[in-house]
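#struct-pred

JT: dropping the chains for the assembly here, can someone run the whole complex?
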Amino acid sequence: MAFDRSERPRLPRAIKILVAGGFGAGKTTLVGAVSETRPLRTEEVLTDRSVGVDDLSNVEAKRTTTVAMDFGRITLNDEYVLYLFGTPGQERFWFVWDELAEGALGAVILADTRRLADCFPSVDYFERRGTPFVVAVNCFEGAPSYELAEVRLALQLNPEIPIVMCDARKRDSSREVLITLVKHSARLRAEPVG
Amino acid sequence: MNTTDGPTDEHWIDPEIIRPYVVTRGRTAPTRGRFDLISMALAIGPPPGPDAGLDPEHLSILRLCREPKSVAEIAAHLNLPAGTIRVLLGDLFDRELVSAQEPQSEVDMRDVKMYRAVLDGLRSL
Ligand SMILES: Nc1nc2c(ncn2[C@@H]2O[C@H](COP(=O)(O)OP(=O)(O)O)[C@@H](O)[C@H]2O)c(=O)[nH]1
Ligand SMILES: [Mg+2]
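RK: done, full complex below.
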């Protein structure tokens, strides 16, 4: 029959991880450090959150906002492709988050110690939504240096939420952050993986 | 690919009844349209002739999708909003010129095999 899928080449399934944090926290840098290519940019034209976006014919009539997202790709194997989305952390973009967080493996929240309060909204959001997340403290030159325990306290993180130091410019460091998230998410939603 | 206990390809409904855009695979949330931002697309079948009624953007998508690409990647490469790409991909899907794969869903996030694959992939970066 026309839609017999056995005749078709297999397509990989995509998995996404979100990278959140305030402006300048290093989101795009982290995405670029681990991705196959330089970060790409896409724009979503989104309707007001009360409007279903599945009915494309109605879109023109509704209030719309354009949100730019940086993202990168990591081809894992023939079966899976991983996408990392660096997303604006302002509250007025929550409706973007709702769409992106759906089906996400988890989120990395980048904390900039010069502006720690910038990541409060992201922490609140992912806690409320139940999306697994880790906090990565980005080490900028000249920024106040805190112990991880101090940052955990300041962000009022639950003890089970991992918090790590990172340098988003370095591939190894950024990769370790992602590995920490994957293990944490597996522990919460499936079973521990090594 | 059987990564979950959810619906599998056997649950495809005959195209005579419902147009099989993309399999829903037991997603718990309402669908957000035919293509997610990270739905994957791949060009299939013989290249369309000039009488296929396709725009240059359609043809650009087909060229890009010789290798699997997400909606987001297509949008970035063609410098068009993702919403536009969704519509164009819909046209191509209807003409059986692309095949599509929905992303991992919230339910799929219980699959330990997936986590192992992601870990292995990250470690070999
Ligand atoms: N020292 C240092 N600088 C960083 C780090 N991560 C990002 N930066 C720099 O901070 C600036 C803002 O980073 P960017 O990724 O654009 O932030 P975004 O707004 O969150 O996407 C850039 O100039 C980066 O080079 C880091 O880990 N350490
Ligand atoms: Mg950025």
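JT: nice. Residues A 27-28, 70, 86 surround magnesium ion (ligand 2) (CB under 6 Å). Chain B is about 35% helix and 10% strand.
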